[in-house]
Structures are given as structure tokens and as C-alpha cells.
């Protein structure tokens, strides 16, 4: 008879994700994770096989969380440009301060190195861009790929904020996105 799991894989992956966010991706070892989640290193090796697979599973778990959060937000917003801003501001609030944002860039580096994780990022981008584009459906003749344009502007605003993080990231992002939407809607209104 097999022993029941004292910690689910999800609980272990949450502990692994906390380690990555607190200490960087290289800090994720079976020894550190064993201390963080209360399981033995041998149990963790049995479940996850090797460090590369553990890291990938941890980051896939993080993508699952981001996908769920994005889907929930996209379902709950009003389909207007203001709703698109609300969605992106809500996604920005998880970054916290500059130190957290900087550490998250190390996690992004891991996503970019792994083709499976890159594919998850591409799928998230496609969903997010479609959700944002749906918020401009009532605008006469919105720019082609408006969802991608807005998502790109959002990511750029996060980066620009990081060089001078004197105000809260969500405030910076909201102001930047409001100016973006004003430019898009003014341009669309001017078209003959």
C-alpha cells in the first residue's frame, strides 16, 4: 500500500515558487525545497526526478496561476477600453516594488530559455491580446492588432517604470494606459 502524500504537488510547487521569487531561480534545489515544504529530498526527487524538471513544473504552475487570474479578470471586466485598462492594472498589482519586479525578470529569463515555457507565454499573450481587443469592439475602426498594441504598451510601461520607480507601479501603468487609449480613440475618431 502506498503512503498518502502529506503535501500535494501543488503545495510543493507553491513552496518552490516562493523560493524562486525570494531567492532567484538558482536557489531552487531539492535540499532548500525540502526545508521549505517539510518533505525529504528523496521524496522530492522521486516526485520530480531532477532539478530541471522541478524548475519547469514550478514555472508551469506559475503560468497556470497567471492564466487563471487573466481569465477571471477578462471575464469580470466591462468590454470597454476602460475595462482593458482595469485588466492590465490588476495584472500589474502583483509586481509590488522594484525589487520584486527585478526578481521576476530572472523568472522571465527561465521562461525564455525553455521552449515549453515559451509556448505557455505565447498562448497567454494570444489570450490576453484577444481579451484586450474585445474591449475595443465598440470603437469605430480600431487599429489593427489593438490588443497586441495595448499589451505591448503595458509591458513597455512596466519596463519604463522600473527605471524610475518613484510611484506605485499600478498608478504609473494606469496613467500610461489612459494616455495610450486616449491616443488610440482620438486617432480612430479622426479617420474619415
In CATH, the architecture of the largest domain is: Orthogonal Bundle
Helix-strand category:
mainly alpha
**Poorly predicted runs:** none
Number of helices: 9
What is the overall shape?
Answer: elongated
Let me know the largest β-sheet: none
Total strands: 0
Mean pLDDT across residues: 93
**Count of all domains:** 2
Helix content: over 70%
- Beta-strand percentage range: under 5%
Q: What's the CATH H-level superfamily name of the largest domain?
A: Tetracycline Repressor, domain 2
**Topology as a string of helices (H) and strands (E):** HHHHHHHHH
Rg over alpha carbons = 20 Å
Distance from first to last alpha carbon: 74 Å
CATH fold field value of the largest domain: Tetracycline Repressor, domain 2
CATH class of the largest domain: Mainly Alpha
Structure explained in plain terms:
This protein is mainly alpha-helical and 192 residues long. It contains nine helices and no strands. The protein has helices spanning 9-23, 30-37, 41-48, 51-76, 81-92, 98-113, 115-134, 146-163, 169-190. Helix 1 (9-23) packs across helix 4 and helix 2 crosses helix 3 (41-48). The termini are far apart. The mean pLDDT is 93.
What descriptors fit this protein?
TetR/AcrR family transcriptional regulator; mainly alpha; 76% helix; 192 residues; 2 domains; single chain; Arc Repressor Mutant, subunit A
